[in-house]
């Protein structure tokens, strides 16, 4: 690699989704790295995935040394990921070294010894399949087999050096007792000091939260802090990097229609193509209708759109769209629209995010809508929701496509929600839909709160919903406090008086307290 | 009773040579005429080491009489080797009878 200077250690791309991003390129090539974590944190899966991805993506063969689980159990356990280890062994692309203790085996120590036998077997396996990747699973299980932990530590060190001579990249897994504190048991941290990856599996407000942290890579940069990851049947471990893809996206001046003509005019000619639009409003203000218009605009332009629905079923959505004269069913049949209905509670937010990314990758839409994003709040803790929102929106921005998300406010009048506070900074355009109680009547008001990179109208406009959808009418006059939910009336003369004070233009509405 | 033994070593290291010497001495004095020993160099025959799941070398494996026993190290602690091979106990019994104790 041309951009790698001499003092930096070359990296080996692992092929594990997200891992190469958070490590800035993969594992240090021809070195040993340790993955430490508590029981059930995903160490073995990550290590095996390192081997499997090597075989699949880079045609790099591997050796798998197991100290804890029998090879039969391991082969069986990972079959659900679609990893056929037995088949790879038959094809001589994978070799397994079984270093598990024999059950009921009595071993007596008499005099000095070392673990050259193990090293010789590993070396033999590496040569047999011409391996580039080696994993040593659960090195902690080696310690109880011998009386002297110092000897095991020393020998592990020697094995590490031996593997380096063989030119392979090694991943060792090591059990920890606790998510915090010492890297591993048996004082191995001294010897593992060079490259350490930590996996955690914390219980956070009754939800499991898996994270990965690159603690250190000697002689190289990597992303700092914890990143969430999920383990699922399709790919195994998938890491969801947040900052890794943030703020690298370009910016486009191309505008697209929101599907509502008057709204486009208010925005100065439509939405930017690579922007995130947040539509916020109480129940029944017309958020789903805004989504329908927005999707319809894509369909009319012959572009693909994907709709993630978290509150309504497919039937409800298509029926409602039909009532506004928008044909979702036909668009789905012609391949321009894909509707994904998934209730938020069925899985964790990390899994939701992963599934959404996969569907976006598979369908390649020009527009994405999520109705509603706030429904996902229930499915995780505040922190994981925040990460979900940021992860999802930054992915949409990274793809340079248009994203529209809706947010249901808790209060009927005015109000704000967690979603709003979380994502107002990552959104480019915020559209507020509010109920306005006026002379004993419930009416609806719409306002563009913010629109990045362009001028927009600042009026609060009244709108109506009928069989053709949304119609935006005239601005409210002589009334303020709409957005805070406590409107008060002004006398016309007073308003005109104010207008003169701030001439030449009509005064903007009072800043909403958001 | 025949003792069938296998000694796994890795090349001609000091550990290996000491283990060979110690084993020869033990066999000649304690198991004369009733032992078979096979010396296996793991570097030359890693397949057999895989089958016996050898990690440490030197390792002495007692194949017969069953159950299989493993004694690791250069066999310099003679008492432990005899204990591991179950030779010591019979020897000890004889000694007890001779001294008239139980």
From TrEMBL, chain A:
EC top class, as a word: transferase
Domain KaiC: 10-253, 254-486
Molecular function terms, GO-annotated: protein serine/threonine kinase activity
Protein EC: 2.7.11.1
Matches recorded under InterPro entries: Circadian_clock_KaiC-rel, Circadian_KaiC_bact, KaiC, KaiC-like_dom, KaiC_dom, P-loop_NTPase
Origin superkingdom: Bacteria
A Pfam entry, by short name: ATPase
Chain ranges passing through the membrane: none
Keyword Kinase: yes
UniProt keyword annotations, A-Z: Hydrolase, Kinase, Phosphoprotein, Repeat, Transferase
Name of this protein: non-specific serine/threonine protein kinase
From TrEMBL, chain B:
Organism lineage string: Bacteria, Pseudomonadati, Pseudomonadota, Alphaproteobacteria, Hyphomicrobiales
Name of this chain's protein: Circadian clock protein KaiB
Domain KaiB: 6-87
InterPro entries documented for this protein: KaiB-like, KaiB_domain, Thioredoxin-like_sf
Organism: Jiella mangrovi
